Amino acid sequence: MIFVTGGAGFIGANFVLDWLAANQEGVVNLDKLTYAGNLHNLSSLDGDARHVFVQGDIGDTALLGRLLAEHRPRAIVNFAAESHVDRSIHGAEDFIATNVVGTFRLLESVRGYWSALAAAEKAAFRFLHVSTDEVYGSLAPDAPAFTEDHVYEPNSPYSASKAASDHLVRAWHHTHGLPVLTTNCSNNYGPLHFPEKLIPLMIVNALAGKPLPVYGDGQQVRDWLYVSDHCGAIRRVLEAGRVGETYNVGGWNEKANLSIVHTVCDLLDELSPRADGQSYRAQITHVADRPGHDRRYAIDARKIERELGWRPAETFDSGIRKTVAWYLAHPDWVRDVQSGAYREWISAQYAQGGAA
Ligand code: NAD
Ligand code: TYD
What we know:
The chain is α/β, with parallel strands linked by helices and 356 residues long. The protein has a domain at 2-191 and 225-253 and 297-316: 3-Layer(aba) Sandwich (Rossmann fold), CATH 3.40.50. It is built from 13 helices and twelve strands. Helix 9 (257-271) crosses helix 11 (316-329). The chain is globular and about 65 Å long. 44% of the residues are buried. Bound molecules: nicotinamide-adenine-dinucleotide and thymidine-5'-diphosphate. Residues 85, 187, 197-198, 201, 213-215, 220, 222, 257, 290 line the site of thymidine-5'-diphosphate (TYD).
């Protein structure tokens, strides 16, 4: 078995679904089900004995001890995190609790379990930590993309908490010998993406006739990675990555935010035109910028290609078309996540007409 944390969130759920579509090996899925965790993401696995879902916290040492002893996984894939930069600006407590303290407790529990394994199992064991390119900070427009050797310069509470977790993972390898792997990926997009992040928010707001809030001048640049490509990269690193190494995972798709929003609008104009015949672009509204907003991220993904033969399969054009089509085909999913905590968050976030 493998043991996945945060497997009811966006990337984790895509990973679990892709894994079980391709493997007979089962998955224990530990997820706290915060606002970002959605069990409907996994409803196609109902009744599938290969998927064991447990609601719980990666910081719950007693629970971790019980689950590891019971299921005896050969690997951990750690997705669980607080993941939204804007939320970390409003309040960082949960980010420190989960991303820093939670990762520490998970590492300690796993170390206890791993230390007691027989020699062959111990050698084959892996702890894969899923992290972000945001730990590297912001790039000048003409600076080379982030390599794995780039200095850590996190600028937001979110990226600082992820940087701290990466350092803990590194230290548990160097000090305790835990066989770790770390992946630092760029902005994911695709099905099941919670509509507080740029792409799904623009799709659902556009369809609801709401403003499309672009922070500042919209010229901030991100690299975009289709989520199933990211899942494939994680499977490959788990299978063949060198212990103790970091792999940057990117889509080779650097885009300015405004151009992303234009693309989303244009696809919606084609696939689900507005009744009044106008373009969805008419709904674009520039709002106050995010405090400390990183100007540019870019990933140099040559190491994972050179060492492990991984390259993304999707272009941005193919991935964004699939993504928009998925949201159009799943209005029930959208309605479901737009209840309760999600609605409260969105009204608090945009009530003042700005990002924070
Ligand atoms: P997400 O917010 O959609 O999902 C996070 C999941 O973790 C949720 O299901 C949530 O319930 C769960 N969780 C939160 N706190 C927990 C805790 N204490 N114990 C157990 N479960 C907990 O996030 P995502 O976009 O799927 O991101 C997954 C991972 O990938 C994160 O570590 C994130 O930092 C990293 N990452 C994401 C992106 C991206 O573009 N989404 C980019 C780079 C890295
Ligand atoms: P986001 O999806 O929150 O990811 P991250 O901050 O981790 O990169 O945001 C992507 C980019 O889009 C980022 O530069 C902020 C910007 N953005 C907006 O302009 N408007 C929005 O409503 C949101 C959510 C993000």
